[in-house]
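Re: the request from the purification team.
They wanted to know what the chain is likely to look like in 3D before they choose a buffer screen. I agreed to run a prediction and write the result into the notebook, where they can find it.
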Amino acid sequence: MKAATVKVIKEELNLRSKEELIDLCLSLSKFKKESKEFLSYLLFEADDENYFIQGIKEEIDYEYQQINFNNIFYIKKSVRKILRNTKKNIRFSKKKKTEIELLLHFCKKLDELKSSIYNNSVLNKIFDREILKIKKVVSA
């Protein structure tokens, strides 16, 4: 099945009634967890961006606490997972302020983590890449 363009979808949604739109949104949220999370953000958290940022920071803190320090492989895997989740939440917001705050918090926690283990090139590259992204966003 080939997906329709955004323009075609927008035109079709304009033709639908309110009840049909509600049903479409609910059925969309049933298929992918990310769709449900995005819909939850739009409905409940988009109005209060500071509350959203604070919740994501707490989630990042919790995920860093759950890292298995027995093996460097698990540390790297966990850091990548935390970064992936952080970027997903940044995509939901689409605000530069939110992006900067969340990436800075991620990098701060990663920096604290790096001091407790020996220098690892993968973790250093992740840290450096995210710092470059922050600088790029700030300069824009």
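For the purification team: Helices lie at 6-15, 18-31, 33-45, 49-65, 72-93, 96-116, 121-139.
Please add any questions underneath this entry.
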